[in-house]
Write a structure and sequence with these properties.
- The complex is a heterodimer of chains A (369) and B (595).
- Chain A has 369 residues and is an alpha+beta fold.
- Chain A contains 8 helices and 22 strands.
- Chain A has a 6-stranded mixed beta sheet, with helices on both faces. Chain A has a 6-stranded mixed beta sheet with strand order 12-16-22-15-14-13. Chain A has a 5-stranded antiparallel beta sheet with strand order 2-1-4-5-6, covered by helices on one side.
- In chain A, strand 10 and strand 11 form a beta hairpin.
- Chain B is mostly helical.
- Chain B has one domain: MetI-like (MetI-like fold, Orthogonal Bundle), CATH 1.10.3720.10.
- Helices cover 71% and strands 0% of the residues of chain B.
- Chain B is built from 27 helices and no strands.
- The longest helix of chain B is centred in the first third of the chain and has 34 residues.
- The two termini of chain B are 37 Å apart.
- Classes of the chains: A alpha+beta (369), B mainly alpha (595).
- Chains A and B meet through strand 7 and helix 4 of A and helix 22, helix 23 and helix 27 of B.
Chain lengths: 369, 595
């Protein structure tokens, strides 16, 4: 495979397995990344997302399975294509900028093996420098730049060559919150403008949802759900996915009463007099140890005088710029966090808590060891 | 044998198809081990084996005996062994103490001339022990420079020609090794540890006490290196030790070989003891340091904050370091230089000081039965180029293997082996070579290398390889794997990734490793003294023939010329490096390169 532009690449991974000695890092991972899409692989530390990305890059060699980039099988059977021939680029977690090269030469590096002439290469580098807003830093060395500037150089380097696939290895993890938000937007914009296929790994669910066309959630080396971010949020396939993609609270369920194909009513031990409507998970049963998982977006607060809702007490409140996030105790030892309201409720206030059935799911707990 | 050990981090490892990888690893391992076996393992083991089985090599009547061991621990040789152990321990303590103070002052304060002091340490590292020893003799002997400067005393003279003088000179020799290891530790130590101690109420002394243990591995490493250096030193033992009638193990070993009749079995026992004495601390160091790293060269740089002395304090601390460095380096060099400009029996005579260039003329127009310096110096330079280049290639290969992130059993054995090999004194290697490569089954049926230049080159490479491999392991391991991976991912082949990433990032370390080996080869005495090809003596051997005679001033002149020539080559190589390499290459490893 040459490093010449052939448009965005389709990536197909089939039954990928990677072992490090006795440790299984990836186990039967299969997924298809459509050309021109932005896919985020989400998972906690040790879930195998970095290994998967490195296998895709060709830095790590899988134990078995196949990887196809574009029309070329880059790994499978006895075949292994080196990273330099996979027509891809990558933004590394530690940026991996070569300290002996200036910003300009770092960005120009991937172009050295491309079909571009020297003037074209220079023009392309200038263009990238402009696009990421670091033209004034072109002759500096990496250690003369701030973290955010270094990240921009890494991004420019990855996008400078006309490759079909760009990989991102937790590129924002070393930045502070302000820079992270800003660069996240730039990554999304510049990557989509470049029209490449992007595979991005992170452990931050908000980052994943903000960037992705599709999100894959990994756990213990297995891809547990791979779909659109909205679907992951609204229909988590398992308790793990629900927890990892952010919940406000999780409660043991007393009784479950089916009311339709998609909905149930559940009785919570701390509010035995009322039933709360929730969504049945499409793929996860609730027959052995049912729990109610509540997304923060599915909880609203109302004054105590409100007719509907379960009673609760405000335990903490924090201003987040747009409104207030509350911690609400709804029963002994049962709390909801990140409950948003435009109005401020003070600590100790008694309120009513209302649940949106769309954002409440009933599934078996699947407690982790 | 020189030793400089820096620690390991994760190296770049790129995958290959399984079949190809298996094939390549086995072949490369085989070649590496074959080379190490021929260079180090077999000659040394064969020689040490004579201690218990002299008849195996036609050196006695017994196939197995302990009698040589008990003989070696008696009398003159026994005293030499004990002297070496306690002297080396003292040297380790002194070298680490002073190196820590100097390293902290240079690396972590705003002292003036940081680069100059680091360069001075390099100079101290390059100057061989026999040169500094002779320089000191030219200072403290009655009628020499000390007398001229008015601080001569018999007390100092007697102190110098004894254990104190030997410990002092060996400590100054070990100082740069300790300094560089501790400096790396201090540079990698972020200021956050100091800050944390300070903000939690720690005063200056408490802060130092809190932070210092963090670099304990570096301190231990420095001690081990200094100890090993002192144990294996031959230059001081051969010059000062013999003059002071203070037996040191390396010199007693030399005597055992060159006595008539030669006593190889007892020499082998001493060799075995020298190796065994240094191996435990070296392994202790390896154990303590396992998995630790002093610093990492990666895409992100961590700034080091320096303690800011006030104007007066800055001048004071700079002066203190200046005086110290003058004492350990400047004074002996001055002694050698002044001695070389006189050809009287002593520097100060009853009729005053007689400056003359006669000794420099005599160097090139020698007396009968003495050799002119020109050809030996040329031989030394040729040796230096061959040995430095050969060592560099092999050391890099070994360093890559040792820095592997997933070391196999072969790498682990190589690591342990090289650590152990650092402790093998040059004289043991030299004697091992003449002993093994002169065996009849080799000279008659394989190759006759005895008294040839290739054998000397092999011996010198074997002498410098373990320490240079360890020295390069640090810089190799400091390159984060992502830098090489980034090159591969962005289209570089394996060779281009190596050329565009590893070579530039390692260029400074490689150049310095080459220069260090070159300089050490020119000044090397132990292996050269034993293995030189008759008629092709290296400069160090020729200089030794003058020293200790009434023509010592000619030896001093030859020493000065050799040192100046060596410095000239080093300067030339550094100039070429500066002229031909891009600016970015030279920034790597430069003090203050990071913001």
């Amino acid at each position: 495979m040459s490093r010449t532009s052939t448009g965005p690449s389709r990536v197909e991974i089939k039954d990928l397995r990677k072992e490090f000695g006795t440790k299984v890092a990836l186990n039967g991972v299969s997924l298809v990344v459509e050309p021109g899409t932005f896919t985020v692989l989400l998972g906690p530390s040790g879930s195998g997302k970095t290994t998967l990305l490195r296998c895709l890059a060709g830095i790590e060699q899988p134990t078995s399975g196949t990887i196809k980039i574009g029309d070329t099988v880059v790994f499978g059977g006895a075949k292994y294509v080196g990273p330099e021939k996979r027509n891809l680029s990558m933004v590394f977690q530690d940026y991996a900028l070569w300290p002996h090269l200036t910003v300009r030469r770092n960005i120009a590096f991937p172009l050295l093996t491309s079909h571009f002439s020297k003037p074209e290469r220079a023009a392309r580098v200038d263009d990238m420098l402009e696009r990421v807003g670091i033209a004034h830093l072109a002759e500096r060395f990496p250690n003369e730049l701030s973290g955010g500037e270094q990240q921009r150089v890494a991004l420019a380097r990855a996008l400078s060559a006309e490759v079909g696939l760009v990989l991102f290895d937790e590129p924002l993890s070393n930045l502070d919150a302000d820079r992270r938000d800003q660069l996240r937007i730039e990554i999304a914009t510049l990557t989509r403008d470049a029209g490449v296929t992007a595979v991005y790994i992170t452990h931050d669910q908000s980052e994943a949802f903000a960037l992705a066309d599709r999100v894959g959630v990994l756990r213990n080396g297995e891809l547990v759900q791979y779909t659109r971010p909205e679907k992951i949020y609204r229909h988590p396939k398992s308790a793990f996915v629900a927890r990892f993609t952010g919940i406000s609270g999780e409660f043991e369920v007393g009784k479950v009463r089916e009311i339709s194909d998609k909905r149930v009513e559940v009785q919570l031990p701390f509010a035995p007099h009322m039933f709360i409507e929730a969504t049945k998970s499409e793929n996860s049963p609730y027959d052995t140890d049912p729990h109610l998982f509540v997304r923060a977006a599915g909880v609203t607060l109302a004054p105590l005088t409100s007719v509907d809702g379960a009673p609760g007490t405000i335990r903490d409140v924090a201003y987040n710029g747009r409104g207030y996030e509350h911690v609400v105790e709804v029963g002994e030892g049962a709390t909801l966090t990140k409950v948003y309201a435009t109005d401020r409720y003070e600590r100790g206030d008694c309120v009513k808590v209302m649940f949106d059935p769309v954002s409440c799911f009933v599934m078996n707990s699947q407690k982790e060891a | 044998m020189t030793t400089l050990s820096v620690l390991t981090e994760q190296p770049p490892v790129l995958p290959e198809p399984p079949a190809a990888r298996r094939r390549r690893v086995s072949w490369s391992s085989l070649i590496v081990w074959l080379v190490l076996a021929l260079l180090i393992v077999i000659p040394v083991l064969a020689f040490v084996l004579v201690a218990v089985s002299p008849r195996l090599f036609h050196q006695g009547t017994s196939y197995f005996t302990f009698s040589n061991i008990s003989a070696a621990f008696r009398g003159y040789t026994g005293r030499g062994i004990l002297d070496s152990i306690w002297v080396a321990t003292c040297v380790g303590v002194f070298a680490v103490t002073f190196a820590t103070i100097i390293a902290w002052t240079v690396q972590r304060t705003n002292i003036y001339g940081r680069r100059f002091w680091s360069a001075s340490m390099w100079l101290l590292l390059i100057v061989p022990t026999w040169m500094t020893t002779l320089g000191w003799i030219d200072v403290v002997q009655p009628g020499e420079l000390g007398s001229a400067l008015g601080f001569h005393s018999l007390f100092i003279y007697h102190m110098f020609f004894g254990a104190s003088g030997i410990i002092f000179v060996l400590s100054t020799n070990a100082l740069p090794f300790s300094y560089f290891v501790i400096s790396v530790g201090l540079r990698g130590l972020g200021s956050e540890f100091e800050d944390a101690a300070r903000v939690h109420g720690g005063g200056r002394w408490l802060t130092i006490r809190t932070v210092l243990p963090i670099i304990a591995p570096a301190l231990l490493s420095a001690f081990v290196i200094s100890f090993a250096e002192a144990m294996s030193d031959f230059g001081v033992a051969f010059t000062l030790g013999s003059s002071a009638h203070f037996p040191i193990a390396t010199y007693t070993l030399f005597n055992a070989i060159y006595a008539f009749p030669a006593n190889f079995p007892v020499a082998a026992v001493i060799a075995g003891v020298l190796i065994l004495c240094t191996v435990p601390p070296v392994f202790l160091q390896a154990r303590v340091m396992r998995g630790r790293s002093y610093a990492v060269l990666g895409g992100r740089a961590k700034a080091v904050r320096r303690y800011q002395f006030g104007p007066l304090g800055r001048v004071g601390v700079t002066s203190a370091v200046g005086i110290f460095m003058f004492f350990v380096l400047g004074l002996p060099l001055l002694g050698a230089i002044t001695s070389s400009f006189t050809n009287t029996a002593s520097f100060v005579t009853t009729s005053g000081i007689h400056w003359t260039l006669q000794s420099y003329k005599d160097v090139f127009q020698p007396l009968p039965s003495y050799t002119t310096l020109g050809p030996p110096l040329w031989t030394s330079n040729q040796l230096g180029i061959w040995v430095a280049s050969g060592t560099l290639v092999m050391a890099y290969v070994l360093a890559r293997r040792m820095a592997s992130s997933s070391p196999g059993i072969g790498q682990r054995i190589a690591d342990v082996f090289l650590l152990g090999s650092i402790a093998i004194p040059g004289i043991v290697l030299g004697v091992g070579y003449i002993f093994f490569y002169d065996q009849r089954f080799i000279t008659s049926h394989i190759v006759d290398l005895y008294e040839t230049m290739p054998l000397l080159i092999m011996g010198l490479i074997a002498s410098s390889l373990p320490s240079q491999a360890r020295l390069l392991t640090g810089p190799v391991a400091q390159i984060q794997s992502s830098l090489g991976e980034a090159a591969r991912v962005h289209g570089a082949t394996r060779w281009r990734a190596f050329r565009s990433t590893s070579i530039p990032l390692l260029s400074r370390a490689l150049v310095w490793a080459w220069l260090l080996t070159f300089a050490k080869t020119i000044s090397e005495l132990a292996v050269a003294q034993i293995l030189y090809q008759p008629g092709h003596e290296p400069a160090s051997v020729v200089i030794e023939t003058y020293l200790g005679t009434i023509f010592a001033s000619i030896g001093s002149a030859a020493t000065v010329i050799t040192l100046v020539e060596m410095m000239g080559v080093i300067g030339l190589v550094l100039l070429i490096f500066r002229l031909v390499t891009p600016k970015g290459w030279r920034r790597i490893g430069e003090a203050g390169a990071s913001l």
